[in-house]
Amino acid sequence: MEPQESAVQYSGGNNSQDEVSKNVSTPESSGCEQFYNKLCTGKLGIAMKVVDGIVLFWVIFIVGYVTGYYIHKCK
Q1: Over the range 36-68, which residues count as b (16 or more CB within 10 Å of their CB) and which as e?
Q2: pTM greater than 0.70
Q3: Distance between CA atoms of 38 and 40, rounded to whole angstroms?
Q4: Block mean pLDDT (10 aa), the chain, length 75
Q5: Where are the alpha helices (H) located in the chain, listed in sequence order?
Q6: Region annotation Disordered: residue ranges (predicted)?
Q7: Which of 26, 40, 63, 74 would disulfide-bridge 45, Cβ 3.0–4.6 Å?
Q8: CA–CA distance, 59 with 64 (Å, rounded to integer)
């Protein structure tokens, strides 16, 4: 593995808030990182989370319905 170059900058001054920034440069982002950045951030990320929540709701609803049907089924 090649070492990553990084730089940390500290700006003190007379401000009441201290600011620290760290920059890490990599030669190329991994596929997983690009996938995460595309689907989990921004407007598309919010839309994906909403869709995931709706799908999860319906999966739990259907599993509960089927389970309840077989548990309370009249003999």
Answers
A1: eeeeeeeeeeeeeeeeeeeeeeeeeeeeeeeee
A2: no
A3: 6
A4: 60 59 63 84 91 97 95 82
A5: 31-40, 42-71
A6: 1-30
A7: 40
A8: 9
